Every structure is written in C-alpha cells, then in structure tokens.
Amino acid sequence: MKNPKIENNLLKPPKIGDIVEGEIIGREKSAIFLNLGAFGTGIIYGKEFLEAKEQLKDKKIGDKVLGKIIDLGNEQGYVELSTSEADKEVAWKKLLERKEKDETLSIKVKGANKGGLLTEIFRIPAFLPVSQLSPAHYPKVEEGDSQKILKELQKFINQELKVKIIDIDPKEEKIILSERAKFLEDIENVIEVGEKVKGEITAVVDFGAFIKFEKKERKIEGLIHISELDWQLIEDPAKVVKVGQTVEAKIIEIKNGKVFLSLKTLKKDPWQEIEKKYQKGDVIPGTVVKINPFGAFVQIEPKIQGLIHISQFKNKVEMEEKLEIGKKYKFQILSIFPAKHQISLQLIDKA
C-alpha cells in the first residue's frame, strides 16, 4: 500500500481533507505556523493545537510536520491544519498495510477487562480478546469464572506481546489483535505431530495437565488431556502428574493454535495382547470402580477396564442396587475390541 500523498507536492490546489507537509516557521504559546510553499502559510492552533500538544512540544523551527487541512483559509488567511487527524489517517494506512502483509507487531498491554487485553498501536486503541491469546497465556480458570479470568488478565498489564492484526475497520475505529495467530505461525515452523518433547508440568486441572516445553528457543505450552495421561481410567490427574514434574510426551495434534500431547502413547499399550488372556464368553472377576448413567466401569487389571452397559439392567436404580463401587463381582465377557480399548461385560454374580 502506498503512503498517503503529500498534496503540496502536486500542482493541483489542495482541498479540505488533504494531508500536507509543512516546515515550521514560527511558534507561539498556543499555535504553530507552517510554510506550505505555494499554498501559503498553515496554522495549528486552538483545539487542534491542544490535542497535538504532546506531539508538537519538542518540534523546532525548521522541522517538518504533517497536517490535515480542515479550513482552506480562516479570517487571518491561514490554512488551518490538524496534526492529530493527519497522524491518525497515516496511522490507519500503516495499520492496513501491516494487516495486508500479515506482519507481526510488538504491543504493550495497557489494561484489561473480562473480555481481553487493551493496548494502543500508533496511539490508536486496539483489543486482544481472551480467545486470541496463545495457549501459554490463556487463563487457566475452571468453570469460566469471569472475576478470576479478569484477575489473570491483569497480570499482563505493562507486558509486551507479539501479535498479528486479524480484523481492522478504520470507519468503526476497530482493531482486533491475535497472539494465537502468531503462536500458530511459530509452532508450525518448529514442531510437528508425532514428535517427542520433554517439558515441565505447569498446571494440573480436572480435565488434564498443561505442559510447557522449549523448541528452537521458543517456549510452547500444550495440554495433556486426562484421557491421554495413562491407559487406565483416571479420576484425578493430580494422582498421575505434579506441577514442576519433568515428563516426556508425544505431540498428537496441533489444532486452532493449540498443541495436544500424550503421555500414554509413550507407554506400552496393555490392550495389545489382551486377546491372548481373555476370550469372548470367559467368566472373570472384576471390581466396580465407577458408575455412570450409561453403565459401570469394571477394573479387570491395573490398566484394563471393562464396561457393563445400563441395558443389562431394568434401569439405573437396579444397576446401583446390584453393583457397589469397590466390590468385586463375576462377569462374563460379551465382546472384546482391542483397537477400541473396549470390553463389554455381563454380571454373573458376586465373587
């Protein structure tokens, strides 16, 4: 995208809204005078001077300044200019160019609300939604508590983040940023599915554990879902991994800027030789470890569970009457599907 035209370099006369460049030829307490060449003398004063006071305070005679024409000739014959309007227009053009080129920007977080982080680019307000944070910075708050999310977001104030512009509308003065887009670009260049990595457990939640690892000098955080912690049924992830623990994991998916890993795929699959031990029709002992609305999980071996479906009973009430968590019973194997890690059972009687 071309830079905004400086109209006083053209032969045609300027018009309101044009951006012109002038050399400072005089200063007063609340005004600056510019030499606009053939177009006469420009002036920045009044409200326009106050709005640009900080930008103009260090300007000296001979310095060049951009201004947007707001009046072609006031009572004194000067061309009235707005520096702040000119800067804003130039800034929007630069931002649109950055968006077109998909460039990475470095921003400093100025504030936070429940929806995300607030910042400025070229003195124009911009917004980074929570959903567009990288996995490493996404608030790890259970049940989506908005007050806790806000507290986590406030920790980023005054920090610098690398982002990309994903939506921009000068008319609505809207700039939406994404750290996740930058993160996704980075990880696609440094990691791949199937790769083994070593990292540190940074948080343990009810649905799994977060792991942070480094690859090619980039720090990346991913999730090990509860179902990927081990081959056995896990009720509490904290019983499998601890914060600060170093583990080796395998990257199993990269999706929407998120990295998913697995611990269990690096362990021997206990289901691989299950058919050598058990056959359809076998009667085996098992301990009920969990009851769900769709059935009961039965521990057959330390890392092997079977399921007795709710359809084996009249209803949930009867299932809960006949099965008690922690007790051992005899079951008959109805089917075995090693590839799906499934064994279907039928209750025989109490062992």
Keywords, separated by commas or semicolons:
single chain, 351 residues, alpha+beta, OB fold (Dihydrolipoamide Acetyltransferase, E2P), 5-stranded mixed β-barrel, 5-stranded mixed barrel, 7 helices, 21 strands, 17% helix, rod-shaped
3D architecture notes:
With 351 residues, the chain is of the alpha+beta class. It folds into 4 domains: 82 residues, Nucleic acid-binding proteins (OB fold (Dihydrolipoamide Acetyltransferase, E2P), Beta Barrel); 82 residues, Nucleic acid-binding proteins (OB fold (Dihydrolipoamide Acetyltransferase, E2P), Beta Barrel), CATH 2.40.50.140; 76 residues, Nucleic acid-binding proteins (OB fold (Dihydrolipoamide Acetyltransferase, E2P)); 74 residues, OB fold (Dihydrolipoamide Acetyltransferase, E2P), CATH 2.40.50.140. The chain has 7 helices and 21 strands. The protein has a 5-stranded mixed β-barrel with strand order 1-2-3-5-4. A hairpin with a 5-residue loop joins strand 2 and strand 3. The chain starts with 18 loop residues before the first strand and ends with a strand.
